[in-house]
Amino acid sequence: MKVCIIGNGGREHALAWKLHHSPSVTDVYVVPGNAGMASVATMVEIDWKHQEKLMPWLVEHQIDLVVIGPELPLVEGLSDAIRAVGIPVFGPSKQASRLEGSKSFAKELMRRYEIPTAKYEVCQDVETGKGIIHQWGVPIVLKRDGLWGGKGVTICETFTDAERVLKEMLNSSEESVVIEEYMRGQEVSLLSFVDGTHVLPMIGARDHKRLLDHDEGPNTGGMGAYAPVPELDGTLEQTIVDAIVKPIVKAMAEEGHPYVGCLYTGLMLTEEGPKVVEFNARFGDPETQVILPLLQSDLGVIMYATATGQLEGISLEWSKQYASCVILASEGYPQQTLTGQRITGDIHTMDTVSMVFHSGTTYETDHYVTQGGRVLGVVGLGNTLEQSLEHAYERVSMIDFEGRQYRKDIGESSIGFCIHTQYRKNSIDKEYN
């Protein structure tokens, strides 16, 4: 099977790497890809927006499956255009992608179908928004309605900040802002393969959105992740699938827009139970970089079955290990990013202990340089969460570029949970043995 991936980030590198090792896949192409993917895929210098070039290329090369990585091509309807020429696509339609493309659409859908999420209101003017903010109190969450690359959400701790952010959002290109109650709890992401009807959940993952340690600083596209999440056991995962994932998939079908592709469900584990934080219409970045190394099933088979409505009866096999990812970002990210910095160290070795996925790199003459905000995703594998983190940070210490920034507390919250759980297990074993 010939597979073409649309995108050029760390998520797409991870997808290309996994598909390259899939027995069902003979050729992997990436449009346009990046310099770090060359060992696992063929780069194709076509802009996905130039469909007059992309469609003939896909047909001429007899591509069997197209996988769309980023959200923008999905929201702009690329999957519909590719399906129109008879090629299966892993990725939702333009209408189904509104689950991510419009936060107000997603919230209204959840309200109609009684899917648990935070209390919210959609406002189009500052005075109405200020009234809601002062009625609900702070902290409070403000969300831009459209796509902002994972950086459209602001948690406001004071009324002054909330009013300022509200004005900034409504004075930009946004016609509306979603005002949401602040939920307390632990965040977790559950990604699922969805073929329009059937749902096949993956293992849970947790990402770190804030730039700085201890969840401080501005929101980013993601500064690290790990999987699986120890707090997300089989019972809780099934509750999420039954109460949230399956109902939203059914809702989309009833609305006339069946969902096909990867459905990313961002959740808050609250005292009242799991509630939806957000839906994304594609694989998460960097969640993909920790989920796929643990998948033992043939990704090509699963993706093709998803794209063609044949997921029923398929199951997933997973490694018993943990995977952790630490993102190395450029100086100034996520605001004014400094690029063009020479990268030193081993950024190519992919083994059973650690691997590196390229997000924002390019090759110049005889070396790699930074070409984006998030530059590299360094992944560690291990039999425990702690071991996977040790391997990730050990690899991080071998890579450098000027202005490099990264978080040093990935996985910290779950390590305490693991230690507590193991202590309880050991105590029970001693009591009953």
Describe this structure in words.
This protein is of the alpha+beta class. Among the domains are: 2-98, 3-Layer(aba) Sandwich (Rossmann fold), CATH 3.40.50.20; 119-181, ATP-grasp fold, A domain (Dna Ligase, domain 1, 2-Layer Sandwich), CATH 3.30.1490. Helix content is 32%, strand content 26%. α7 (126-136) runs antiparallel to α8 (159-171). It is globular, with a radius of gyration of 21 Å.
Low-confidence stretches: 423-433
Cα radius of gyration in angstroms? 21 Å
**Number of beta strands:** 22
CATH topology of the domain at 2-98: the name is Rossmann fold
The CATH class of the domain at 2-98, by name, is Alpha Beta
Return the structural class: alpha+beta
Tell the overall outline.
Answer: globular
β-strand amount:
25-35%
Share in helix: 25-40%
- The multimeric state of the shown protein is single chain
User: What CATH architecture label of the domain at 2-98 applies?
Assistant: 3-Layer(aba) Sandwich
State the separation between the terminal residues, measured CA to CA. 53 Å
**What count of helical segments does DSSP give?**
13
User: How many strands, which pairing sense, and closed or not: the largest β-sheet?
Assistant: 5 strands, parallel
How are the strands ordered across the major sheet?
3-2-1-4-5
